[in-house]
User: Fold this.
Amino acid sequence: MSTFIQRLKDAWKANDSLVCVGLDPEPERFPRAIAAGRAPIFEFNRAIIDATADLVCAYKPQFAHYAAVGAEDQLARTIEYIKRTHPAVQVVLDVKRGDIGSTAERYATEAFVRYGADAATVNPYLGTDSLEPFLRYEDKGVIVLCRTSNSGGGELQELMAPDAKLYQVVAKLAALRWNARGNCLLVVGATNPAELAEVRALVGDMPLLVPGVGAQGGDVGQAVRNGQTASGTGLLISSSRAILYASRGEDFAGAARAATLSLREEINKHRARAR
Amino acid sequence: MSTFIQRLKDAWKANDSLVCVGLDPEPERFPRAIAAGRAPIFEFNRAIIDATADLVCAYKPQFAHYAAVGAEDQLARTIEYIKRTHPAVQVVLDVKRGDIGSTAERYATEAFVRYGADAATVNPYLGTDSLEPFLRYEDKGVIVLCRTSNSGGGELQELMAPDAKLYQVVAKLAALRWNARGNCLLVVGATNPAELAEVRALVGDMPLLVPGVGAQGGDVGQAVRNGQTASGTGLLISSSRAILYASRGEDFAGAARAATLSLREEINKHRARAR
Assistant:
């Protein structure tokens, strides 16, 4: 099987898009006709996918939104639906796992075998042996939190270790150690554009998952200019709420398509042309 | 409702025990009669609980062991069974969540509402706003990873920030900020006994969840002496595999009881007497 990075490159090219749509279903914001159905989360996701799959490189279901309401089956159906109808589009399971090795093995099984995701997010706080069981899946992507987009993200991540800030240490470990199989990526939020440029300088062409545009307020142009590789790729720019809830009426899927198109255009405007 | 800390104190006293049994079901290690049943994970857990509930202060189901095999229903049944048959024994859901605020809210709902756990483990890498949605449940315990027991735990956690190592920064944040409602605890592994003493000095009487005895090799006596409070409590000493799989035959529940008794005795031998 091809590697995640190769499949991601193909997806970037096929849809000329660095957009990753976060599938964070909030049933209380669904239009009435969807909310009344038997599998509302899956039906909502399917409508969003049908409306946007030719405009994105990846979908990113956020685990908590399914786990909080016991909708693991609808999460599985969503991923299965994406893989069946749009096999080129990649699926990032946003689970942010981090646990000791023997437990991490089970989490890797969950993400890659049970749900069949192409990539998963993980937390580096427990170090190499907590990441290794994920990294061992050579054809999957392992996306390590580095500098997150939330307001408290800097409390630990910006702490100055002897030679570098904590998130820079994480970026260096990713580049020098965790990427031995070429399947490691990092999360760097668009709300920290300067850090995005620093991380890019540390990790070569390693792809970065960039949340924080849209509802969280990060600037798209700055994120692209600071985060892209020389070939104008290297990014998955993730937006969730600004796309999913662009309209809360029955026209939500059309509104999501328009918002995705507009984000793709805004991103492409700032991309280096050699791609 | 009483606070988690009060309920934990009551449980320490009722069973004269600091033992927390980790419920990490590994179906491949179940005795044949259990493995052949319709809900093997729940049946295994029930047998362990029936055999040990008068000897422990808490149970700690480890989420990955359920999620990897799609056994969320058996996790829910296990917690419901503990609360119904042994209401004094506390349930710590070991999920190590860490995500931005709006997502953390859903994870808190999962742990405290969907599963009804008394406490949950969380990861501090994303900072205060990722913990706050958990801490807002004033009657629940929020157990923050500080110095973990695994081999790679020190890679980030021992990094020297300007004034203190990262895990010490976490301990200070816990004591000074995250414990404003008196419901914050920390994880410090028994494999790092010196760090256990340091953290105890930083956080006063805050209870510590201590994994790493048993299969991971941490010394019980050192952990108790370095981690306990003046009253000989302040600890949940967690053991999973050494208890659950003390025997792999049909006598597994009896063997688990014997191993739990022996761990309780070993712990109590080293506890300060004023309790």
